[in-house]
């Protein structure tokens, strides 16, 4: 059976969607990734989604529900399977609940929290 083409979406297309696309690519899926906004950091260049990326995809995985809303607002999703996860990469928010993450280097935080949570969240949808 042919595996679907998967588009992974986060805010800026630089962290969570990139990681998730690589993770799924290692599982044999064709993947792309990008950012749907809303953007808060004007000094960082985002990897924005393009209409062609959305058209290419069979399945779109948004790492937060707000990204699903942005997708609906900006793109035609008819015929697309859209999966909404709820994985933040806000170290500040997570540290409020789990203080051990408060003073952790952000790369280590992503390895120990964000990427682990993405793998757990997408697991229930596999195989796509």
Which fold does the CATH topology refer to? Rossmann fold
Low-confidence stretches: none
SS-derived structural category: alpha/beta
Cα distance spanning the termini: 11 Å
Strand coverage percent: 15-25%
Write the layout of secondary structure elements.
Layout: E1 5-10, H1 16-25, E2 30-35, H2 51-56, E3 59-62, H3 65-74, E4 81-84, H4 91-97, H5 106-123
Parallel strand pairs: 1-2, 1-3, 3-4
Helix pairs in contact: 1-5
In short:
With 128 residues, this protein is an alpha/beta fold. It contains 5 helices and 4 strands. Helices cover 40% and strands 16% of the residues.
What do you see in this structure?
This protein has five helices and four strands. By secondary structure, it is α/β, with parallel strands linked by helices. It has one domain (5-123): Rossmann fold (3-Layer(aba) Sandwich), CATH 3.40.50. It has a four-stranded parallel β-sheet. Helix 1 crosses helix 5. The chain is globular. It starts with a strand and ends in a 5-residue tail after the last helix. The mean pLDDT is 94.
């Amino acid at each position: 059976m042919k595996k679907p083409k998967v588009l992974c979406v986060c805010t800026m297309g630089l962290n969570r969607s990139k990681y998730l696309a690589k993770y799924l690519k290692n599982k044999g899926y064709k993947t792309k990734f990008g950012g749907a906004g809303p953007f808060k950091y004007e000094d960082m260049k985002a990897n924005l989604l393009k209409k062609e990326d959305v058209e290419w995809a069979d399945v779109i995985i948004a790492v937060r529900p707000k990204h699903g809303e942005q997708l609906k607002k900006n793109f035609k999703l008819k015929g697309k399977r859209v999966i909404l996860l709820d994985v933040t990469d806000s170290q500040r928010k997570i540290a409020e609940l789990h203080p051990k993450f408060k003073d952790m280097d952000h790369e280590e935080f992503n390895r120990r929290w964000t990427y682990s949570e993405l793998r757990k969240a997408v697991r229930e949808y596999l195989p796509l």
